[in-house]
Amino acid sequence: MTKPSHTERLELFRRMLHMRRFEEMVIRLAQSHEYTGRQHLHIGHEATGAAVAMAMRDGDKIHTTHRNHGYVIACGADPGRAFAEIMGRRDGLNGGKGGSWHLCDATRGFQSTSAMVGGSIALAAGAAFALKLAKSGNISFAHFGDGTLDEGVAYEALNIASIYELPVLFVCENNSKAGQRPSSMLAAARLQDVPAALQIHCELVDGADSDAAQIVFQNAADRVRTTGRPVFVEATLERWPGSHQVKADFPTGVTDISLALNLDKVEGKHADWIKRSDPLLRATRALIEDGVSDLVGLLELDAKVNKLMEESRSFAEASPFPDVSVAFTGVFAS
Amino acid sequence: MPQMNLAEALIDGLIWSLRADPRATIIGRGIAGHGPEHAAEDRLKQEFGSRIIDPPTSEAAVAQLGTGAAMAGARPFVHYGTAVFAYEAWNQFINEAANIHYMSNGQLSAPVTFHLFHGIRGGGGPQHSGSPYAMYANNPGLEIVLPTSPRDAKGLMRSAMASNNPTIVIQNAKLLGLTEDVPAEDYYIPFGKADVKRAGKDVSVIACSRSVIDALEAAAILENEDVSVEVIDIRTLAPLDVDTIIASVEKTGRMVAVDETYEICGVASELIASVVTRAFSALKSQPVRVARPMTPVPFSPPLEAAVNPGTQKIVEACRRVCLR
Amino acid sequence: MKKGLKTQNGASDDGQLMLSMHRTMLRIRHFEETIRKLAASGAVPGLVHLCAGQEATNVGIIAALEERDFIASHHRGHGHCIAKGAPIEELMAEILGKASGLCGGRSGSMHVIDMDRRNLGTNGIVGGGIPLAAGAALAARSRGSDDVCVCFFGDGALNQGLLHECMNMAAIWKLAVVFVCENNGYGEFTAIDDVTAGPSMPGRGKVFGIPSVMIDGMDVQAVYDAARRAVAYARAGKGPSFIICNTWRFGGHHVGDKQEYKDDDITKAWLLRDPLLKSAKVLAATGVASAKAIAQMEIDAITEMMAAADAVRRAPEPAPQALLEHIYG
User: Fold this and answer.
1) Which of B25, B76, B222, C259 could cross-link with B227 by S-S, CB 3.0 to 4.6 Å?
2) DSSP assignment, residue B93?
3) CB contact under 8 A, C124 and B304
4) Active-site residue B128, yes or no?
5) What pLDDT digit, counting tens, does each position of B286-319 carry?
6) Which of B94, B103, B143, B191 is most worth mutating to test chain A (most A CB atoms within 10 A of its CB)?
7) How far is CA C112 from CA A129, B307, C41, C92, in A?
8) B59, B260, B270, B304: which one is catalytic?
9) pTM
């Protein structure tokens, strides 16, 4: 398969790095601050999230699930404001009213996060409906997990998108690869059998392979744009060991991208996942082996990103809690 | 001025909305019901057929389709038909549409209008007689509109479609045939403005939807007993115009609240609570609540009549509040 | 004489079974016609949804069940009730809201529940019976029984998410459910093709690994054969099946529907496929019953329904005290 251009690959990698360092900082913040709520981290999904974000154009809309941090960062939201929102502070993306599970940055088309399984998929169909009515040429993206396909509303949304020809790119992050307890109990042999039975074009991609993801999602989005019909992409992923955190934790440790060239040095309980599935390490290795960059260059980039996250952290920590009076405002639009 | 029935007035309001705003779109069919007034929908189909889609029986996704589209710039009107069908979409109404403006901190709103037919209707039985608006009102973020006259229906529908919030226009289908003069031109009726449907001085009967019509009948009966009944139509449950209600109770000193929702946590309860907590000293007697008793609505006509908070029950309630 | 449907050895070419199914179809046809007249005269509260034309699916499926098996029906369910053995007068009384009705007059046509005959009920919510049947199958399994549960739904319910959820659960847990779609081409007044994506309805069941077929729902023999296979499969613990019966309702969605959305030519073609006509031809051709005997069966059916209507019209309505009964157990 042809690979994306060097520029595109570097851009994807840059976003992936932002996403990973953001999530690691979220864990640190959770460990050092008492703030309410759990967070569902996107670690291990970065290749998919970044590839989807890169396939978006101005005016496109995306609806995500509770596992949304990666997407909001990949879409270009300010990390400081995202941290602040997760911590319930005044300068958060939602003014402290939404929290981790409802991050919203409408200026970037990041419409909303639904914390209800099945929430995002039909909202995205609705967004596509509006975009089509407005003849904007824009498309809508739905991000959801494999568990969502157990929901009746997902089936209904897929049927509606098919019969009304809605320009939606359905992105299913299937992080229940064989051998793990699946989120989905779907009887179908493959998740995509469901949209396929409804005449929706389907693609399958290794969601941890950044080059493949970049190509598949770009092509899928182009297909939605040109045909005006929905497309369903299943991105298979191996679940990150810290995926269901009750207590903030670093089971795979802070990512060291230099290990990409020294995988045999990886140790610990989750060494297998790190060596096999970490998309960041895979991407690092690929960029170096293909001569797109070298380790020094990538480490420099990493340092910049880490610095940005430190500054963003400071911004968030300095942001006060919202004034209590705002709890009673903004129920209705004027 | 032309005469319109309530169905025609609703449709007229919708047509003005579609003319005014190219983003307005219709999801659903049977907007004027399936009874004798159903033909009112033909005008809509003739002028705007291309902007109407007929959805599959997928209530949850249809609510979300409308909400998601509204969040992305459209102005959908989503018709469900019988209100209880929308129970399949509780999550979508409450967790998504009602919450989005608040939880996005104002970045997004959901200017979607849902249209439902509620109420005891004669043989509807336990699953087709629901009036869910008290439950919707017990949740912030939704506007709830209950038109009871053709003139109100047109103006309120216009406001619903123009509103930037999720609005539920909920209609008792038995009112669709009511007829009166309705201005032909475009006009709006604001939310949060109750209407004095009949002025009186002895008892304030506060009602909504079909109960307004029943209350007016009761008032005519009581006139022959020398009891002067004032009937207030709240018109919108959310926002609720408490000031007009209190002004009336301060005038009469006696209050009956009547509505088709259930007694416990129903609309009548809220109406009384809003007066008692703000204008207790104006009351000369204990307010009375006329609502459905806490039973599913039975099918057989005499049983259905027994649970229906109709005219006779309102008459009796007015007599009770006048006893002291 | 037991008015229910007794299953024979199972061979669909058993003449007695065919005769029995024909008789039940006739009774359903004339029951519905009687209800139609009663509704036109104002004796039926509310709306009523008649199943004339769909008798073969009602009868053929249920003929493959034993009395201990369950059914869950939908708003067009009188035929299911009758096929499952509901007493005619009590069924009619329920539709007219009389105290002697199967549910004391409190439920009406759309919520006739008849647990003595393991009928979980007709249902006013599209797809409402589907999870009830799945639940009954789960309960049966929990108590170690191989009772089978059939749920009937229309083509309108194909796009209900709940069907997807229940098919999935029935498949993964191998529940003894038979999903029967009575495809009469219309969800109320909406043509099914306009709202149902995908080239293949059986394909929607096959996605879950559920054996799925589409058959001629006007041929009671074909329906019975398909049902027999599905019931045996379920009883053997192998899980659910999905049967789509192509059929047609001769009347409107409800009594009073003018049916302007139906095409005249298509309607005529379907009338020629009346399940009663087809069944009578088979009976005559196989010599099971003479034309005279079949005509007599029809007269008996008409007589039965008219007598029931007379009795029910005169029957009392429930007393208001009945209102507060059975809210809680």
Assistant:
1) B222
2) I
3) no
4) yes
5) 999 999 999 888 888 888 888 999 999 999 999 9
6) B103
7) 40, 20, 22, 10
8) B59
9) 0.88
**What are B162-186's pLDDT values in tens digits?**
999 999 999 998 999 999 999 999 9
CA distance A307 to A314: 11
Spell out the alpha helix ranges (H) of chain B: 6-20, 41-48, 59-71, 90-91, 100-103, 133-137, 150-162, 210-223, 242-252, 267-279, 301-307, 311-321
Inter-chain touch B125–C110, beta carbons under 8 Å: yes
Cβ pair B71:A111 closer than 8 A? yes
Locate the domains of chain A by residue range: 6-239+293-319
Catalytic residue among B128, B143, B270, B304: B128
Q: What is the pLDDT of residue C2?
A: 31
Nearest to B154 by CA among B28, B3, B27: B3
Q: Is residue B251 part of a domain?
A: yes
Q: Which residues of B touch C324 (CB under 8 A)?
A: 293, 295
- For the domain made up of A6-239+293-319, give the CATH fold: Rossmann fold (3.40.50)
Report residue C313's pLDDT band, with 50, 70 and 90 as the boundaries.
very high
Residue B279 contacts C, CB cutoff 8 Å: no
Q: What's the structural domain count of chain B?
A: 2
Domain at C15-317, CATH from 3.40.50.150, 1.10.10.10, 1.20.840.10, 3.40.50.970: 3.40.50.970
Inter-residue contact A134 to A117 (CB < 8 Å): no
- Give A231's strand partners: A169, A201
Which two tokens mark A275?
Answer: 């060596």
Domain ranges of chain C: 15-317
CB-CB neighbors (< 8 A) of B72 in chain A? 61, 111, 126-131, 140
Q: How many CB pairs under 8 A join B and C?
A: 116
For chain C, the distance separating the N- and C-terminal CA atoms, rounded to the nearest angstrom, is: 34
Distance from the C203 Cα atom to the nearest Cα atom in chain A, whole angstroms: 6
Q: What is the CATH number of the domain that holds B56?
A: 3.40.50.970
Q: Distance between CA atoms of C8 and C19, rounded to whole angstroms? A: 11
Can you give the pLDDT at residue A242?
A: 86
Region of C317 on the Ramachandran plot (φ > 0 left; ψ -120 to 50 alpha; else beta): beta
Residue with structure tokens 């030519």? C265
In this structure, are B158 and B200 located in the same domain?
A: no
Q: What secondary structure does DSSP assign to A118-150, as a single string?
A: THHHHHHHHHHHHHHHTT----EEEEEEGGGGG
User: What does DSSP assign to residue B177?
Assistant: T
Q: How many beta carbons lie within 10 A of that of residue A159, not counting itself?
A: 31
Whether C105 and B298 lie within 8 Å, measured CB to CB: yes
Which of B56, B101, B141 is the closest to A160 by Cβ?
B56
Question: Is residue B209 a contact partner of residue B118, using CB atoms and an 8 Å limit?
Answer: yes
Q: Fill in the amino acid letter for A196.
A: A
Q: What are phi and psi of C56, to 5 degrees?
A: -65, -40
- Residues of chain C in contact with residue A155, where contact means CB-CB under 8 angstroms, are 161, 164
Instruction: Report yes or no on B190 lying in a domain.
Output: no
Please report the pLDDT score of residue A179 as a whole number.
58
Q: Residue B47 sits in which domain range?
A: 3-181
Burial class (CB in 10 A: 0-12, 13-18, 19+), B281: exposed
The reply to whether B90 touches chain C by the CB within 8 Å rule is no
E-strand spans in C65-111? Answer: 70-72
Burial class (CB in 10 A: 0-12, 13-18, 19+), C264: exposed
Residues B208 and B72 in one domain: no
**Residue A170 β-bridge partners:** A142, A232
pLDDT digits (tens, 9 = 90+) for A26-42: 999 988 886 666 778 99
Asked if B38 reaches chain C (Cβ–Cβ under 8 Å), the answer is no
ipTM of this complex: 0.87
Residue B300 has its nearest CB partner, among C105, C124, C194, at C105
* Residues B9-42 pLDDT 10s: 999 999 999 999 999 999 998 999 988 899 999 9
Q: C128 vs chain B: nearest CA distance in angstroms?
A: 11
